[in-house]
Write a structure and sequence with these properties.
alpha+beta; 10-stranded mixed sheet; 8-stranded mixed sheet; 13 helices
Length: about 375
């Protein structure tokens, strides 16, 4: 039976982050993944590493550290950083007030407030009712469906991490992992199961009310715009905790409740990211409960209406639609539990895995190995 310093269950971004943190310490690492490739939350997202707007404290700190690791990994693993920075455009005076308060505080370090004219110069096609914008330099955007396989391949080739694909974890006996194709002995085991956390810790999952958040996204062609940064707008300020914590946010939310009740009911906020082929990845919505694989025409219409309200886009052609999901719980932003001596289970419960996982991996490995 093969033996490793660390066994990681799950090859999503959280699992890969733990594998990287251990490999960088010179530890031997094996990763076991039930699917033949990453197919879940880690590749059904924007690939958006977000810093500005994250909750003050641990989440923002982790996002800043993870951003630094992303830059190192992207360079080493030949992952293209498609966009840098974010521009949050304010369509309402109340939204502009939130952005001004954020920019003036400690979390606004490095950010720049733009007037309407300068914002339009940064984003050709931005509609004329934009009152101004916050330009953040911190964000990165990769194509997640391409980046995850590249990270796994780089970990295997550069760091000697052993991957076993298409093999579900069946059980843990001490520090031995039993999986569909055999057994592995580990000095420690990290389980990074994403939405499958309840399979490994059912009692804890019930205690913290672990459930699914479903989100709807789409890719469009024919928009005729060029985005150097990821684009966000007013509804995002009500969802991102760093923005929502500003005193002016209460007035914005009150106005949004009057004008955007349907969008708020579906948890919609607008993020627009551009891929190398010029298509735009647009979303998203948030529904809590059981996993859904069905995309709603009503939700899509609302998302596209938000897009058209922000950008003067050409005729839109939807070329892809998908439903993503991630775990949420009463414990946020991270659910981390020691299931047995040297066996930890880790899942991100706030939808911030792409933004914070590399830092979380470093923290867990430091806890396990000192």
């Amino acid at each position: 039976m093969a033996s490793f310093d660390l066994i990681v269950v799950g090859a999503g971004i959280v699992g890969l982050a733990h594998a990287l943190a251990a490999a960088r310490r010179g530890l031997s690492v094996a990763v076991v993944e039930r699917d033949t490739r990453a197919t879940s939350a880690s590749v059904r997202n924007f690939g958006f590493v977000t810093v500005s707007g994250q909750a003050e404290g641990d989440t923002r700190r982790r996002a800043l550290r993870s951003r630094a690791v992303w830059l190192e990994v992207a360079d080493a693993a030949s992952i293209e950083v498609l966009q840098r920075g974010a521009l949050v455009a304010a369509r309402r005076a109340e939204a502009l007030a939130v952005l001004e308060e954020f920019a003036a505080g400690s979390m606004g370090e490095g950010c720049e407030m733009l007037g309407a004219r300068d914002a339009a110069m940064r984003v050709p096609g931005l509609r004329g009712d934009c009152a101004g914008a916050l330009a953040s330099p911190h964000e990165l955007r990769v194509e997640a469906r391409d980046a995850l396989p590249r990270i796994a391949r780089w970990l295997e080739e550069r760091h000697g991490v052993r991957f076993t694909w298409g093999s579900a974890a069946l059980g843990i006996e001490g520090t031995t992992l039993v999986h569909a194709h055999g057994r592995l002995e580990g000095g420690a085991i990290v389980i990074a199961p994403g939405t499958g956390f309840a399979a490994f810790a059912p009692d804890l999952a019930r205690t913290v009310h672990l459930r699914e958040c479903n989100l709807q996204m789409l890719r469009i062609a024919g928009a005729g715009v060029r985005l150097l940064s990821v684009l966000m707008s007013d509804l995002s300020l009500a969802r991102y905790e760093g923005f929502a914590a500003q005193p002016a946010a209460a007035r914005l939310v009150a106005r949004l409740e009057r004008e955007c009740a349907a969008q708020l009911a579906h948890g919609i906020h607008l993020i627009v990211a551009q891929s190398a082929d010029g298509t735009l990845v647009v979303g998203d919505s948030h529904h809590y409960g059981d996993i859904s694989t069905v995309a709603s025409a009503e939700v899509e219409t609302l998302i596209l209406a938000e897009l058209r309200g922000l950008l003067d886009v050409r005729e839109i052609t939807v070329v892809e639609r998908w439903v993503g999901h991630y775990p949420v719980a009463d414990v946020r932003p991270l659910l981390s539990a020691q299931l047995a001596p040297s066996v930890h289970a880790v899942t991100v419960t706030s939808g911030t895995g792409m933004s914070t996982a590399f830092a979380i991996g470093e923290e867990t490995i430091a806890q396990l190995f000192g």
